[in-house]
Amino acid sequence: MAQPGYLILGRVIKSHGLRGEVKVACFADSWAPFRMLRRLWLGPTAGPFKPFMLESGREGDRAVVLKLHGVETPEAAAGLVGYEVAILRAEAPAPPEGAFYHYDILGLMVVHGDRPLGTVREILETPAHDVYVVRGPAGEWMLPATRAHVRRIDPAAGRIEIEPGVDVAALLTGGEESAEAI
Asked: Which domains does the chain have, with CATH numbers?
């Protein structure tokens, strides 16, 4: 689990070039919102994270090449492979209207009208859309993060409202088809 207070932007996947650059698999759709950052935090998932000044960054396809101050050789860069790249949550740029960071969603209560159904414990990223893994009285179930299923996300109120017409029983049981029927 990532350290509280940090927004994880990606993970160092390899050293790059001869100047001590690192290639980072970017977890965000684009590096563009983070282009103006001057300080990043790197470290293992469990921490501790260490601050690095960012000298430069070049975007690629779902990856970015970063030059960090004080990392001057391929060997030093290789020592960062596997580390997460983060920023302080307080320094995170605001997401676009109607979009949320994962940490805004995790822990929210999912409700259908006044009926609490559980809490978002994990977010699965799929090519089509995110899927919220919810744990509640009925056990663990999945909620597609689509407009057809989600009426409103309100982090300030701590809740996600499901559309009134959604078949909650089907969501809680995994739908009409079971693994045996396939």
From this structure: 6-91 (2.40.30.60), 102-173 (2.30.30.240)
